[in-house]
Amino acid sequence: MTEATMWTIPEPLATCDVQLDENTVTTVRRHGNPSGPRLVLTHGNGLAADLYYPFWSLLANDFDLMVYDLRNHGWNDVGVQRDHNIPTLILDHDLILDAIVRQYGEKTTVGVFHSLSTLVALLSFNHAYSALILFDPPLCKPAASELEFIEAAERTAAMTRRRTERFTSEEQYAEVLSIIPGFARVVPGVRDLMARSTLRKSADGDGYELRCPRDYEAQIAEYVRSFSPLLDLSTLICPTKVIGADPTLPYAYLPTFDLSHASAVDYDFVPQASHFLQLEQPAQCAAMVREYLTNLAIPLATRGDPQEGIRARRSTYRSRVANQWFQRWNG
C-alpha cells in the first residue's frame, strides 16, 4: 500500500442505538460474519472505532463484529463534560453489552479493547465475556513505577489541553499527524482515516473540529491516573490476553510495562510497535487475536461440523492460563 491508501469503512450489516442516559445515544454497528463468535470492539481516549478498521477488517470473515464509540467520540454527539468520566463509561459499557444481547441474542462474546477501553472493561467485572483481549492497557505497577505513571498521565493531560482543536480541512490535520512521532509507524492511509474519523465539520461552518473535545480527552487522562492503580489482575473473571507495545521503545502515551511476570494474564507484546500497535501492525495484531481464541477453542465462523474444528484445536498449544480455564469449562 502507498501513502495515498484510502480506507473506506463499509456500511454495517445492522445498527443498534443504545440509550445511555436521557441525552446520550451510541450506535453499535454490526460488521463481519454473523455466524462467527462475537467480538465487541471499541477504542482509546480521543479516538474512534472506525479508526481501527485496518485492524478489525482483518477479522471480519470469521467473527461477528460489534463496533461502537465511547460517549463523546466518533459517531456520537458531544454531551456535558461533567458526565465524561470513567464511572460513567463503565455504566455505558454494561448498558451496551446488555443491548447487544437483547438485539442479537446470547453467544460466545469476546471483548477486544485498546487503552482507555481496556480500563473500562476491567473495572466493569462484567460476566458476559468468554475472554478479553486487551491492547496496551494503562496498567500501573506499584512503588516507583506508580510515580512514573502518574507523572506521565499528568503530562499527557496537560499536552492534550494545549493541542489544536480546529483545522481548516481534514487534509491539514492529516499533515499535522505526519510530523507527530506517535503516528510515525502507522500503516499508509491511517493518518487520513484518523482525520476523517475524529474530526467533524464545525457548527459555525468554519472548518473542522475534534469530535472529542480536547478538554474531555484531558479529563479522561486525569481519571486514568486515578483509576489505573485500582486494577488487580488477580481478580480477572475470564481468560485474558494482554498485548502490549514494545516495552523497549519510548512510550508515546503512558508507560508500557513488561507483564510477563503476571500469572493471571497471557501476556505478549508486538516488537517495534508503540501504543498505536493496531494501527501500526494490524495484521500481526489480528493474528494474535486469532491465535489466542484458537488456543481457547473458541471456534471461528462455522464451516462444516463446528465440533470437528473445536476437537482439532484442542490439541494445539495453550497458554498457562487457558489450561486452567479449560479444566473449569470442560469439567
Low-confidence runs of at least 5 consecutive residues: 304-331
Give the structural class: alpha/beta
Report mean pLDDT, rounded to a whole number: 83
Q: Distance between termini?
A: 48 Å
Helix-strand topology string: EEEHEHEHEHEHHEEHEEHHHH
How much of the sequence is in beta strands? Answer: 15-25%
Instruction: Please list the strands of the largest sheet in the order they lie side by side.
Output: 1-2-4-3-5-6-10-11
Provide a compact summary of the structure.
This protein has a domain at 14-140 and 232-330: Alpha/Beta hydrolase fold, catalytic domain (Rossmann fold), CATH 3.40.50.1820.
Write structural notes for this entry.
It is built from eleven helices and eleven strands. Helix 2 (86-104) packs across helix 3 (116-124). Residues 304-331 have low confidence and may be disordered. The chain has a domain at 14-140 and 232-330: Rossmann fold. Strand 8 and strand 9 (208-210) form a beta hairpin. The chain has helices spanning 53-56, 86-104, 116-124, 144-162, 170-177, 190-198, 214-227, 277-280, 282-295, 306-313, 320-330, and strands at 14-21, 24-32, 38-41, 64-67, 109-114, 131-135, 166-167, 199-201, 208-210, 240-244, 266-269. The strands form two sheets. The protein has an eight-stranded mixed beta sheet with strand order 1-2-4-3-5-6-10-11, sandwiched between helices. A three-stranded antiparallel beta sheet has the order 7-9-8. The chain is an alpha/beta fold.
